[in-house]
C-alpha cells in the first residue's frame, strides 16, 4: 500500500478503528480508495474501512470453513477407495484441504480474529460454508465429479481472487489455486478411467454428473440481480467478476469437457448460442438453493454435527496442550530465576 | 477476464494419465527395476514374499486405521499430521505388496485385471493377512492413538533401521525411505504423549489408559516366526527379538517426563501358539478389511 497510508495507519493504530479526527479519517479513506483503485495491495497493518475488514473476514472465513467441511464428503470414501493408488490420491487431497483451511484461517488472523472464534461461529451456524458440501457422496464416481465439477467451479471463483486487494488472501489463493487445479485434473483423470471401464462404472459416472451438475452451478451464488453485496465487493477489488459472469464461463468450459468424457449434463435447454458465443442453459432451481443455504439441504445437519463432535471431542487434547505449554513456560521462568 | 485467470486451462491438455505426481504417497522410489529384482542368492522366493507381506500388512492395516481419523482430529495441525503419517505407511505398503506380487504372492488371489498391490490388498481374506495384531487394534481416542503410535513407530523404526542392511535390494530401499518417515512419526507421538501425560490430570488418565490398552499387543512384536528365522539366517530379514531393547529405551526416555507408568499387563493370548504373523488375528481386523475391500470386491472385473 502507498507509503502515505502506512504512515497514516500507524498514526491511527493498527486496527484502524481507533478514534481518528474527521479530517484524518477522510485522508485515510481517500488513500485506501487510491490504493485499491490502482490495483495496489492492502496489507494487515494498513488502515482499512471497517466494512472492508468485516466483509473480508466473512469471505475468507467462509472459504476456510468450506475447505474444512468439504473434507467430509470426500473423507466418506477414503476407507473404501477401491485401489491403493486412489486411496493415496484421495487421502492426499483431503489433507491438502486441511492445509488450505489452515492458511485461510491464518489469513483471517491478520484481520484480528482467531481460528477458535471462527470455529465457534461455524459450529453454531453463525457463519456459512459452501452449500455444495451439503450434498451426499453416494458412489466413488462422486469423488471424480467433485474434483472435476466442484473443484472446477471453485477454481473459476478463486483464480480471480489471486488478485484480491487484500494481500494475505491473494497470496494464500495463489497457492490454493495451484493445488485445486491439480485436484481437478486428478478428478477428471479418475472419470476418464471409469468411462473406459465397465458398464457399471460408466453408469456410476453419469449418475454422479446428474446429481452434481446443478449444485455446481449454484456454487457461483445468486443471480446478479439478487446479489446485493457484489457491487461493493467489486469496488473494493475483493470480488473481481459477477456471479453470472463466472457461471457462464464455467458452463462454457465444462460442456466441451463433458463431451470429451462422454457424459451429458441433465439440462435439455443447454445449447450453443452462436450469437452470444456462449452456451445457453436452463433455469436454476433457486428454491432448492435457498433451502440448502438456510440449512435444509440433504446433509447440512450431519456436516455440522460431525464438525461439532470432532471439535468437542478434541477439547481435552487442546486443554492438555495449553496446560503443558503453561507448565513449560513456568518451568522456564523458574529456571531463569534460579 | 484477465490472462491470469487461466489456471483452469491446463485441464484439457494434460489428461494422458502419465503424470507421476498423480500417484501421491506411492513412494515407488525403489523403482520398478528393483521391484523386479530376483531374490538374493539362496533365498526362498516364497519366504521372501511372505516376509514382504508381513511388513506390508503391518503398514497397510495401520494406515487404514489412521485414516479413520480424517475429519475427526482434535486440531487442523493434527488432521494434516495424521493424514501424512497414514500416507507414508500406505506408500511403504504399496512397494512391499508390489514386491510380494512380483515374487508370486498375488496369483492365488487374482480374480480380475488389477495390479498385484490391489489384488493383495483387496482380494485376500482376513486369514491371509500377516500383520501383527497391534496394527489392527482399535485406535480409540487421541490419547490411545498417540500411545499406540509411540509403540508402533518405535518398533517399526528399530526394524527398518536394521533392514537397511538387508541383502534384498527392495527391502533395503524401502527401509532407507521408511527410516526417515518413522523417525518423524516417533517424534510426533513422543511429543504428544509427553504433552498429554504432563498436561491435565484428565489427559494423563486418558493417555495412560491408552497405553494400558495397547500393551497386551506389544509382546507379539518380538516373537520370531519361522519365515523370519530362515530369512534372518540368510541376511535378509531383521530378528524381531533384537528390537525389544530399543523399544524399552524409548519408553524409558518418554514415560518419566510424561508422568506415565509402564503397564503391567499380560500379553494377549495366542491360538495354539499362533498370532498375526500366521493369520490368526483379533476380531478387530475383519471389519477393517470389510470396509476397505467392499467396493473393490463389488466390481471384481473393474480397475480404477
Describe the structure.
The complex is a heterodimer of chains A (338) and B (304). Chain A is mainly alpha-helical and 338 residues long. Chain A contains 13 helices and 2 strands; from the N terminus they run ααααααααααββααα. Chain A has helices at residues 3-12, 22-37, 50-75, 84-109, 115-123, 141-158, 167-195, 199-218, 230-235, 243-261, 286-296, 300-313, 315-337, and strands spanning 271-273, 278-280. In chain A, strands 1-2 form a two-stranded antiparallel sheet. In chain A, a hairpin with a 4-residue loop joins strand 1 (271-273) and strand 2. Chain A starts with a helix and ends with a helix. The model of chain A is unreliable at 1-16 (pLDDT under 50). Chain B has 304 residues and is mostly helical. Chain B has one domain (44-297): Up-down Bundle (Ferritin), CATH 1.20.1260. The longest helix of chain B is centred in the middle third of the chain and has 29 residues, at 169-197. Residues 1-31 of chain B have low confidence and may be disordered.
Write down the domain tally of chain B.
1
Main β-sheet description of chain B: none
Radius of gyration of chain A: 23 Å
Instruction: List the total number of helices of chain A.
Output: 13
CATH architecture term of chain B = Up-down Bundle
The sequence of SSEs of chain A as H and E is HHHHHHHHHHEEHHH
The share of residues in helices of chain B is 40-55%
Largest sheet of chain A, described in full? 2 strands, antiparallel
State the end-to-end CA separation of chain A.
48 Å
- Residue share in β-strands of chain A: under 5%
Oligomer: heterodimer
Poorly predicted parts of chain B: 1-31
Q: What's the average pLDDT of chain B? A: 91
Record field, number of beta strands of chain A: 2
Mean pLDDT of chain A: 92
Instruction: Find the biggest chain interface.
Output: A-B, 76 and 72 residues
What integer value in Å does the Rg of chain B equal?
20 Å
What general outline of chain B do the C-alpha atoms trace? globular
Percent helix of chain A, as a range, is: 55-70%
Categorize the overall geometry of chain A.
Answer: globular
